[in-house]
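[agent] plan:
  1. take the single chain provided in the ticket
  2. run structure prediction with default settings
  3. attach C-alpha cells to the ticket
  4. add a short note for the reviewer (M.T.)
[agent] executing step 1
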Amino acid sequence: MQIGSRTNLGESRCDLVQAADILLYKPTHVPVGEDQVPHVELTRELARRFNFLYCQDRPPVFVEPEAALTAFARLRGLDGNRMSKSVGNTLALATLLERAREYIKQKYQKPGNVYLGIVSRLDGRGTQMSFPVPPGGDPLITGLSEDISEPVLKLFDELGYRVWLQTEPGWAPVDKAFHVMLDRYGHHPCVIGVGVDVEWHRSNNPDKGDPVTDEMAAKWLAAARAHNPAYRMFLKHFREDVMPPTFREGILFVDDSQIFESSEAMIEEFAKWGRIFAPAPVAFQYGYQTDKPWWGKMKDPVKEIGDRILAATPNAEALIWVDFSVRDVFPPDPSKGDRVPPKK
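[agent] step 2 finished; step 3 output follows
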C-alpha cells in the first residue's frame, strides 16, 4: 500500500471488521470450522485488550467468545479431503440440486423436489435463527449476525423446490419461533410450511424431547397459518409417543429413525409408523451414515429403499435422503463437466 493512497478498510483490515461483527453481539460462543479458530482467538485478544485498557473501573464491555466447533468442523470435499475449488473436489449447490431434480423426475416420473431446511438450530436452552433477529423479542430466540439461508432459498425458488422450514426449539416457544421464521422467509414461493424436530422440544437430548399435546399442535399450526392459510406443519421424531394423540389436521409426521441392522428392519419400522398415523400423511428420512454398511452395497439406494417404503406405506407423502451422505449418491459426473479429483 502506498502512502497517501486510498484503500477500502474492508480489504486492508478484514480481520478487524470481522472481529467487530462478532463482538458487537457479545456472543459467548461462535460456531466455526477448524480454519476459523485462529480468527476467534484474534477476536478474543481484541476483546481482552479493550477491556484491559478501558474498563479498569467498570464492568467489561466485550465478552471473550469461545470457538464452538460444529459437527463438521472441517468441510470435506468430494474426495474426503478439505474442500477446495483449486483442487476440484467441490460440487456447486445449484448443480447438486439440479441433479437431484433430474434424478427424481427420471425415477419417479413426477415432481417431488422437497427439502427440509433447518433455519433454527438448538442453542443452549433456546434456538438460534440463521439470520439476524430483531431486538426486543423472546430472549430464547436469537440469530446470527448475517443471513445464511436467504441465498439458498432464492435458489430453491428458481429451481422449483418445495421447502419446509425446520426449528430445533429447545425451550423457546414454538409458535413465536414460527412467527420469526416466517416473518423473514414467508415471502419465498418455495416455502410450503414449517416443522419441529421434536427431539429438541424442551430438550437437549436427541433421544428425548417433550411430547407434543393436541393443544400445542393446534396452536403451532395456527401460528403458521396466520402467515399463509395454506401452510402445513411437520413434526419429526423416531418415537410415536411424543406426537399429538389425536390432532392430525395439516400435519405431516416424519420418522427419522436410523441405526438399523438391515433394510428389512427399516421397512418394518417405517411401515409401522405409517399405520399408526394413517390416514394422515407421513414421511421418512433415510440415508444416514450409521446405516451405510448395508445401503452402501446397493446400486441405487435412493430408489431401491424408496420403492420399498412406498410399497409398504400407502400414506407416505415424502421420502427425504439426508444431506450427510448426499455426495455418496450424487457423485461428480465427468460426462457433465464435473471435475473429478484424482484418486490417491
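[agent] step 4 note for reviewer: Residues 37-54 form the longest helix (18 residues).
[agent] ticket updated
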